[in-house]
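Hi L., both proteins are below.
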Amino acid sequence: MQTLIIVVLSVALLLAVIKIFTAKQPAQASGTDAAINNIMTRTSVRSYTNEPVTDAQIETMLRAGMAAPSAVNKQPWKFVVVKNREKLKEIADSIGPSRAAAGAACVIAVCGDMTKTLDGVGRDFWIHDCSAATENILLAANALGLGAVWMGIFPDQNRVRTARALLDIPENQEVLCFIAIGHPAEKPTPKDKWKPENYRIIE
């Protein structure tokens, strides 16, 4: 009789475990859904906590930046990662639109290497290339649970000169922008920017 009770209890326990593992689980976002959601939920974050951003996270963001498309695969980007607190404050104090740098865990300066541009009228494609890299970094930051904001430098030559001096950037590089990055201390609501009037289809 005792053996029968043990068998019955064992079967009941097994059925309970099976029920738990076969219960309908919340739908997980597919790769496509996750990618679209990451794009749609990206926001500009300008306020950060004191938590540091790890070197592994920085490398992931830089890898994402370098995965961007570029004209004739020139890959004209150069990146300067600033983690020094005094330098971050100096950036914030010296360039008005870069105030978010003061509280950021790091700033990534996105630069265009003019020795890797196309000749002639194609020279300024570096702007497209480095902008694509910048957006990839912003999306990678969002995917990592970080907050980031794009802070424009180029084509304002006063800002470019100041940025170049602050970060000791050589003359053969143009500074496109700074990206302030950190763990978000705010949660801005993503803006719905969909406007059907902003596109047309030619069939």
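That was the first. Here is the second:
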Amino acid sequence: MPADQYSVLGEAPGPEELKKLSSDDVHLTIKNLNAGYGKMVILHDFNLFIGKAQSLCLIGPNGAGKSTILHSIYGFTNITDGVIKMGENNITHFSPNEKLKHAGVAYILQDASIFPAMTVEENMLMGGFLMQKPSQAREAAERVLAKYPRLAERRNQNAGVLSGGERRLLEISRALIMEPDVLLVDEPSIGLEPRYIEMVFEILDDLQHNEGKTIIMVEQNAKKGLEFADIGYVLVSGQLAIAGSGDELLQNPEVGRLFLGG
């Protein structure tokens, strides 16, 4: 769909409007971010505000820059301008390892990232690769496995035999080993059967509301993502086009027409 098809979405909200969507306890802030890959700039003056234990879903057409936002937060892009903060701490140019170890940001990849020839337990232990001692990773893995009996029962089986939903559960569980505060989740429902999609969103809901995780996700199923999220952002051509609560965007007729099949 040509970019001008999205002009009906109107003028992008400014930082003050975006702040109002977040809680008073702002956890992660992006201000005037310009970022991309090599010399190609994908994001233009992008702003984001999300409070502690809130969830935010990024939707938009293919190529709009949704995953680039996650990549930028985690340190995978070339940032030419702008600031990313966790609380008052500037983490703009932290490496991915520094983001995970020192800022508590974990990234759950869109592409299948498990090691199929390794056991479930061995995959879990890989999540603790930044810990000082292997025993720390083992203790953390035991805590996470105790929470997810489905994985614990299969801990000694090769991950390659898991179903698609179980693999996604393993990817999420592995990301929890370092006890992150912020989860960046790229396309959690992609390639999954409906029953596993429900399972994954139930897990994310539990992590947000019972464990206080802040969640920023990209979701191809815009309706599912907005139903889940406290906040929704619509991106077009690397820029923010519209923002509101998840419920507000679900009720927006233009968002419905363009992204929800309405």
